[in-house]
Amino acid sequence: MISKKGTLTNLKKSPVGKENYDSALEREYMVELERDAAVTKWTKKHGIKIPYKILGFSHDYFPDFLVEYKDGHKEIHETKGLPLLLWLSTKLKREAAEVYFEKLEWKYKMITKGREAFYNKKR
Q: Residue 1 falls within a domain, yes or no?
């Protein structure tokens, strides 16, 4: 059984060679990113922080992955499993991210069970 939190090491496409994961879904996706021939680089250590509000209180959202592709474009990928996909905070984070990344002309994707799902905004 895969642990919910841990560290993957010996990564070829991560600039630091190792990355921490917070769920089995994140771990699975990290392995997929390593195998994807179109991906040149990816990291969870990107420093991107997106402000959003929930019930009038300010929060910061730190998306899961910054992914760079061979053609030079960048995307942000967020892994979510059920029931988190249904939470208000997930919806508000996604909406804030849409605005933030549209300005950068980056694609923002929600990933579930190792695949794009529920939301895939075109760049």
A: no
Domain enclosing residue 95, as ranges: 6-120
CATH number at residue 13: 3.40.1350.10
* pLDDT tens-place string over residues 12-53: 999 999 999 999 899 999 999 999 999 999 999 999 999 999
Total Cβ atoms within 10 A of residue 78 = 22
Continuous segment of H or E residues that includes residue 43: strand 39-43
End-to-end CA distance of the chain: 37
**What is residue 116's DSSP assignment?**
E
Tokens of 61: 């959202």
Number of domains in the chain: 1
Reading the block at residue 121, the tokens are: 């905004």
- Contact yes or no for 109/77 (Cβ under 8 A): yes
Q: What is the pLDDT of residues 75-114, one digit of tens each?
A: 999 998 877 888 899 999 999 999 999 999 999 999 987 4
Count of CB atoms within 10 A of residue 77's CB?
19
